[in-house]
Amino acid sequence: MIVGGALGALLFAGGATAGPQVAIALPAAPEAPEGCRQTLRDDGLRLAPWPLRPEKLQAGVSCAAPEGVSIRRGTSGLRFQPPARVNCAFGLRLVRFESIVQEEAKRTLGSPVRAIVQLGTYNCRRMAAYPDLVSEHSFANAIDVATFVLKNGRQVVVERDWIPAAKAAATPAAMFLRRLTRRLYDEKVFSVVLTPSYDRHHRNHLHLDGAAYSVDGT
């Protein structure tokens, strides 16, 4: 596991007696680039505006999703089941995500992906593993992916098909998941990529988010 940026400072600063204090900005939703929704439409996504009223989580932190969008279908026709309700900036990440998913599926599995079953996007809450920290789900800046449904009818299920790295080449499904998550982190599609190898909270899904810090949980 590699942890960097603000989260690394929070986890490893060592407290008040371990050295100089580290100033950490309060977590917040990323701003949407100008013309963000139109950019997504121009890329071919099927979406609808998803207005979200900010909700206070704790002192100085509000759950929010600037220019929220509900994405039903991606650029290649891939469907999000249920629709992915995210902030618009994260929607741009999903365009790159979809492209890499299709490349790796065709390369490793011999079939494109027609649908992604996701367990959640927006959820105003703290992190399950670190309750003192705010989850990126609070800003609609994350998605939890459980299953990839291929055009040929097969399914890649994270809980079933993720296996230890030493055996990752044993099945095409396992190889697909390993190659996919490695690329998503290395190519900075997402700053945080968590897998079943990370901890028990992620045994059945891939957690992908766009936090200001980085965590390699592949």
Give a brief rundown of this model.
Helix content is 26%, strand content 27%. It is of the alpha+beta class and 218 residues long.
Query: What share of the residues does DSSP label as strand, in percent?
Result: 25-35%
Helix content: 25-40%
Determine the oligomeric state from the structure: single chain
First-residue to last-residue Cα separation = 7 Å
Explain this structure.
With 218 residues, the protein is of the alpha+beta class. The chain has one domain (31-217). The protein is 26% helix and 27% strand. It contains five helices and twelve strands. It has helices at residues 5-12, 36-42, 88-109, 158-161, 172-186, and strands spanning 2-4, 46-49, 55-58, 61-63, 69-73, 79-86, 113-120, 142-150, 155-157, 192-194, 206-209, 214-217. Strands 1, 2, 5, 6, 7, 8, 9, 10, 11 and 12 form a ten-stranded mixed beta sheet that branches. The chain has a two-stranded antiparallel sheet with strand order 3-4. The longest helix is centred in the middle third of the chain and has 22 residues, at 88-109.
Using brief descriptors, characterize the structure shown.
single chain; 218 residues; alpha+beta; 10-stranded mixed sheet; two-stranded antiparallel sheet; 5 helices; 12 strands; 26% helix
